[in-house]
Specification:
The chain is built from 15 helices and 51 strands. With about 850 residues, the protein is α+β, with helices and mostly antiparallel strands. The strands form 11 sheets. Strands 9-10-11-12-24-19-18-15-16 form a 9-stranded antiparallel beta sheet. The chain has a 9-stranded mixed beta sheet with strand order 38-39-40-41-45-46-51-48-49, with no helix packed on it. It has a 7-stranded antiparallel beta sheet with strand order 8-7-14-21-20-17-22, with no helix packed on it. It is globular. The N and C termini lie far apart (about 80 Å).
Length: about 850
């Protein structure tokens, strides 16, 4: 729906000569009085309204119907001449609020109400009232619509916003964690439609952002579409409907060259409404990444807000392939990690819902997790595509890493959302997914098998979907090791110690088998000093061409912990990457054999046979972070430099030219930056605490940023061997990793961010607790409290019934742990005090 109107001369005169009526509005008691601006010019039939801070203003034109003709952000109009209006569209006609009607205007101290906005025909007539209220930092617009009849509509605007062009905003961040990237609405009528309608449009060059936050009545559904309209304007249309909108074309959220992304829908006779909070946002402040020495913080912010969010297709569909291609691969284990780095509660909530949907719709009765979601058929094994849900098995083969991807994402997501009830809802499904793969060990050697047996079948078994890896696949088994260990910990948290021990035992056996030399049935190639990719059922060896995700996964997931092997692998990879002067790691360094790959991978280097796929960067960063963090940092910086050059808007990069290739943009390209947060800065949330496990270089000294976990803001300050975390109710300094939870005068400190020991501190007054860890060894623990209060200390995880020396400000006493391994004592501190407990 595209309707255009030329700007009237009176608008120019009004903008130049309007006299403002300033109205004082009472602010909160903690703030001074603020002034909003309302001006009604009846002769021009125009109303000017702005927020009290003068960051945002709009002009309402009711000379010909009713529309917002100007919306200025920091003094600059953002709208096209067609402005902002409401509308309905039947299968034959379009009616809008710009249709001439005799509207009525009533002004108040801080707002205006416009009634009798009418449009439609005899069969379906719409009557609306528009109410605007100016507040200190926002303008509230409520639209109340009355339908005189029931009808089937082809489209509506509730309302539609026509911005000047597609360069005005870089994009818009959705309230489901996703985003629209304006440059990808490249052609006329390219349209992206989603089932959420809140958005923050931003321009990184000006630092200005516009937030539009909708509210609707309970039981109503929101949606929105973003279009490149026929006048080259950027059009944003919001929907309020009685039922959730269906897609018009298959399951497509993005459609090229079509403005009608949603199917026709039914409206009832009666009223419907929407309230919109319109506000200015200081983008640089609100989306600040803090102070990141030796790291381009602006590039980090923009990479995460674009490429990192691009994989959100819609509500309940978060992946990496993204909304342009309407694709999601379930065999990718890094979406919760992306959420950790994005640090956006909206993304976190949406990914929890995504995993719920995949449990309910993408898992078969036997525990098999279907590998992909797509809007249309054509990529599936025949008979596997579900036209209602979009989930299916990929035509290239049964990619078994969807089993491990589901487990890894679920466990890591749990540590972000902290929702024990949610985890319980995934217990049976995670067990089924693991058990499905555990059963695939026909030769009982502890290594789990794929569904394809040999290269002659020309089928894939993992993410490298046109490489014929099969039978015993090292890449899948390394991920299985990670999945088993992560889920064993979750079983322990859920109180199922029997299952926890079982999965840990399976993982241990897998590790032993995995690390055997190839002539003993394992994956280690002693001559080439690398892990091979796979072994066919006939015991032939394949993938000894230094496949980076295989070898990175072995190290990153801990199935390889042999220091000599780690050095041999990582030194090889760094030497060869540096020799070729590559900005990131290729999928493999040498060629597969021709019979091991699809023709599209030939000749070398091409596609999955040697090109650069940064998607698996996080495993490389994790592997190098504990070996040589300067190498890890080099590739983090390289990714950020590449983003500055081309926006990382590619599927992969050519090995020979290092230029971007492939129209299928991959959000996984941002994972090297997720690893910056996890494996360098040490952001390691746990379900019951915030965790900090830094691995800092001195070049990063002075790193300082805020991190929000479950609605609590933590200030993180990290340098080499100097770590500090603080919030409104505590501050902790330490030179070792730790975790902390706090609430209303109680703090729990977790040494090394583990749960085998914890120090609980309760204070009488609920004042902030200031704490420094002086030392924490196996049998001696020392800390200092800088705040004054009456404290009770409890230390859990000691040797039961063992005697300990307790020193308070160097005054010694003897205290015994109880039968549960706990010691408790109280102390009133009026000045900084030191505490030490040492096993006698």
């Amino acid at each position: 729906m595209t309707i255009n109107f030329k700007i009237n001369l009176w608008q120019l005169l009004l903008a130049a000569s309007v006299i403002f009526l300033t109205v004082q509005v009472e602010a909160q008691t903690t703030k001074p009085l603020v002034a909003s601006v309302i001006n009604h010019n009846p002769s021009a039939k125009a109303i000017h309204i702005s927020d009290a801070q003068q960051n945002l203003s709009l002009i309402i034109d009711y000379a010909q119907g009713c529309k917002i003709s100007q919306l200025s952000v920091k003094g600059k109009n953002t709208l096209a001449p067609s402005g902002v209006y409401t509308a309905i569209k039947t299968d034959t006609e379009t009616f809008t609020s710009i249709n001439k009607s005799d509207v009525k205007v009533l002004t108040t101290d801080n707002g205006v109400k416009i009634t009798n906005v009418k449009y439609g025909n005899q069969q379906l007539n719409v009557q609306e009232s528009w109410s605007f209220e100016a507040e200190e930092d926002k303008i509230i617009w409520t639209i109340l619509r009355e339908y005189n009849n029931k009808a089937i509509l082809d489209d509506i605007a509730f309302p539609t916003w026509n911005f000047a062009d597609l360069s005005l905003w870089k994009g818009g961040i959705f309230d489901n964690g996703g985003m629209v990237w304006c440059k990808y609405l490249a052609n006329t009528n390219d349209t992206y439609g989603v089932h959420t309608a809140g958005v923050t449009f931003w321009n990184p060059d000006t630092g200005n952002a516009l937030r539009i936050k909708p509210r609707v009545q309970k039981g109503r559904h929101l949606a929105a579409k973003y279009s490149h309209n026929e006048d080259d304007e950027f059009q944003f249309t919001q929907y309020v409907t009685d039922t959730e909108l269906m897609q018009r074309y298959n399951l497509s959220r993005f459609v090229a060259g079509k403005a009608d992304v949603f199917a026709p829908f039914y409206v009832k006779k009666g009223s419907s409404s929407i309230t919109l909070e319109i506000s200015y946002v200081d983008y640089n402040k609100e989306y600040s990444r803090g102070t990141l020495p030796a790291i381009n913080a602006t590039a980090v912010r923009e990479l995460l807000n674009t490429t990192g969010r691009y994989g959100v297709v819609d509500n309940n569909i978060i992946g990496a392939n993204g909304w342009i291609t309407n694709w999601k691969c379930l065999h990718e284990p890094f979406f919760a990690q992306i959420g950790m780095a994005l640090n956006d509660e909206n993304y976190t909530q949406n990914f929890s819902a995504t995993l719920d949907q995949e449990r309910d719709q993408a898992m078969l009765a036997d525990g098999r997790v279907l590998s992909r979601w797509h809007d249309i058929q054509g990529d599936e094994i025949e008979g596997t595509y579900n036209t209602k849900t979009g989930y299916y098995e990929a035509m290239w083969g049964y990619t078994i890493d969807s089993q491990t991807g589901y487990i890894i994402n679920t466990t890591e997501q749990f540590h972000l959302n902290g929702n024990l009830k949610w985890l319980k809802g995934h217990k049976l499904s995670c067990e089924r997914a693991l058990d499905w793969l555990i059963r695939r060990d026909t030769n009982n050697n502890g290594i789990f098998e794929m569904k394809n047996d040999n290269i002659a079948q020309q089928k894939a078994s993992d993410w490298l979907d046109i490489v014929w890896a099969g039978f015993e696949n090292a890449f899948v088994n390394a991920q299985m090791y990670e999945a088993l260990n992560l889920w064993a910990e979750c079983e322990k948290i859920l109180g199922d110690s029997q299952k926890a021990q079982y999965y840990a035992k399976v993982a241990l056996r897998l590790k032993e088998s995995f690390n055997k030399p190839i002539d003993q049935g394992g994956f280690w190639h002693p001559e080439k000093k690398q892990y091979i990719y796979w072994r066919d059922k006939d015991q032939s060896i394949h993938g000894d061409n230094l496949v980076t995700p295989v070898n990175f996964a072995a190290i990153a997931f801990g199935i390889c912990d042999d220091k000599n092997r780690i050095a041999q692998i990582l030194d090889q990879i760094e030497s060869r990457t540096s020799d070729e002067q590559l900005f990131h790691w290729p999928l493999c360094f040498d060629s597969f054999k021709k019979e091991e790959v699809h023709a599209n991978n030939w000749p070398f280097p091409q596609y999955e046979n040697g090109d650069i796929f940064p998607t698996w960067g996080y495993m490389g960063i994790r592997a190098y972070a504990n070996y040589d963090k300067e190498i890890a940092l080099k590739y983090i910086r390289n990714i950020l430099d590449q983003y500055q050059k081309d926006g990382l808007s590619s599927q992969r990069y050519s090995r020979s030219t290092q230029l971007g290739l492939g129209s299928d943009i991959l959000a996984g390209i941002c994972t090297s930056i997720t690893a910056l947060y996890r494996d360098i800065y040490g952001i390691r949330p746990q379900w019951n605490r915030m965790g900090l496990e830094p691995n800092m270089s001195s070049a990063l000294n002075g790193t300082d940023f805020n991190y929000t976990l479950r609605n609590k803001i933590y200030k993180i300050q990290v340098s080499y061997k100097q770590y500090q975390m603080s919030s409104s109710d505590f501050a902790i300094k330490s030179n070792m990793a730790f975790g902390v939870s706090s609430d209303k005068g109680k703090l729990i400190f977790y040494p090394h961010n583990r749960e085998d020991m914890k120090l609980s501190i309760a204070c009488a007054s609920s004042k902030p607790i200031d704490m420094q860890i002086n030392d924490w060894k196996d049998t001696a623990y020392s800390w200092a409290i800088g705040s004054s209060d009456k404290y009770k200390f409890s230390l859990d995880g000691l040797v039961p019934s063992m005697k300990y020396e307790l020193l308070i400000n160097n005054k010694a006493s003897v205290i015994a742990a109880n039968k549960n391994g706990s010691i408790s004592f109280s102390y009133t501190s009026n000045s900084p005090s030191t505490f030490s407990i040492r096993q006698i």
